[in-house]
Amino acid sequence: MGVYAISVDTIFSHNAFVEQLGGLPFPLLSDFERRAVEAFGVRRDDVPGYRGMPQRSVFIVDRSGIIRWAWERSDTQPMPDYDQLVAEACRIAGS
User: Fold this and answer.
1) Which of 11, 22, 55, 85 has the least C-beta neighbours within 10 A?
2) The whole model's pTM is what?
3) Maximum C-alpha span of the chain
4) Which tens digits make up the pLDDT trace of 24-36?
């Protein structure tokens, strides 16, 4: 199982971010052209000046490429339940 983070920021921005954090234990991928944002259906055009910005979200995709669990930010849940996320990832990885 692999963990990947995707952002619409540039690779240069990612490099600076990773350096500031002192490294990350997983790849940080750039979706500057917003292809993943479109494919996963999380594109937002409601924020002035940030057209095509993604909705904060988490997807767990199985080895066959099927989305098995998803979370999207909402007003009532601005951050995912990390215990649930880890439990789901472990369950899916074990199947």
Assistant:
1) 22
2) 0.81
3) 43
4) 988 899 999 999 9
The token duo for 10 is 């540039």
Please tell me the distance from the alpha carbon of residue 78 to that of residue 81, in angstroms, as a whole number.
10
Q: Write out pLDDT tens, residues 13-57.
A: 999 999 999 999 888 999 999 999 999 999 999 989 888 899 999
C-alpha–C-alpha distance, residues 17 and 46, integer Å: 26
Cβ(60)–Cβ(92) under 8 Å? yes
Whole-angstrom CA distances from 44 to 8, 14, 83 are 12, 21, 27
- Strands (E) across 31-76 are located at 43-44, 53-54, 57-61, 67-72
2-10 LR contacts (CB < 8 Å, sep 24+): 2/26, 4/28, 4/29, 5/29, 6/30, 6/31, 6/36, 7/31, 8/32, 8/34, 8/37, 8/52, 8/53, 8/54
Provide the mean pLDDT of the chain: 92
